[in-house]
Amino acid sequence: MSDGRRFDRSAIVWGIAFILVGVAFLLDRLDVWSIEPELFAPLALILIGVAVLAGARREGTSR
Amino acid sequence: MSEPTGQRPPIPPQRPRRSVWDTFNPARLVFGLVLAAFGVIWLLDVSDVVDVDLDVVLPIGLIVVGVALLVSGTSGRSGGGLFGLGVVLIVILVLTTLVRVPFTGGVGDRTERPARFADRTYELGVGKLTVDLTAFAFDAETDPLSAAIEANVGIGQLVVLLPARSEVPCVSVDAHAGIGEVVVFGESRGGLGPDYQTRDVCTGPPVPELELSTGIGQVEVRRV
Fold this sequence. Notes:
The complex is a heterodimer of chains A (63) and B (224).
Chain A: H1 9-29, H2 40-54
Chain B: H1 20-23, H2 26-46, H3 54-74, H4 81-98, E1 107-112, E2 120-132, E3 146-162, E4 172-184, E5 187-192, E6 195-199, E7 207-223
Parallel strand pairs in B: 1-2, 2-3, 3-7, 4-7
Antiparallel strand pairs in B: 4-5, 4-6
């Protein structure tokens, strides 16, 4: 049953992405895990691609 | 005279209870809170009230922005300025990850020629730093058999000159550049985050243990 709430899919995807990236950098700064600079470019592409996919559905079907 | 109908007066519809997210735009709320929090932290840091490690504050700020975007998205609102703030934080984090060398040690061209074989640390913010190890004196009875020689350049060139192999047969090299090139004994590696590690197996002293890095620029190790 729908409660009438609407979702902004793009904001949700970017929110999750920012949380994951923030946790990764935090672990790196705390020396728990090491971020390899070589990963930046492919990960950025994946992130942008997922965000574009999330926003690709037409207005009215995405919410 | 009209007869009573026996019907109760209609009950006015109740207003839906408003949540805090209906009252405030969560994106703007958190955006303002994050900016104010960064300002307070910065103020406390420059006032020497607390020693703030921005290396930890920035990722936490990004996580807070992400949570705010998530909350904002589930309540049907767009992220507003949060998206831009998150992107700015990521760019800063990426740059500080690539360029981890602290910008200390001044600006310009400098040459260091240590006279004795011992642990040394050299730093230069921007410019060219030459560490000339070709003329140090070594006494096997009093000096250490190996010595850690650390040199960091923020932006620029770092050159380490070593004596001929006949004088110093063994050397340990750990060289890294955030963005740029690492050239060790003629072998060149370039691009994003190139590094070079070598461990000679021989043990003939003295053994310089070189730990070299530049944020943006070139690291070069060569024998004369």
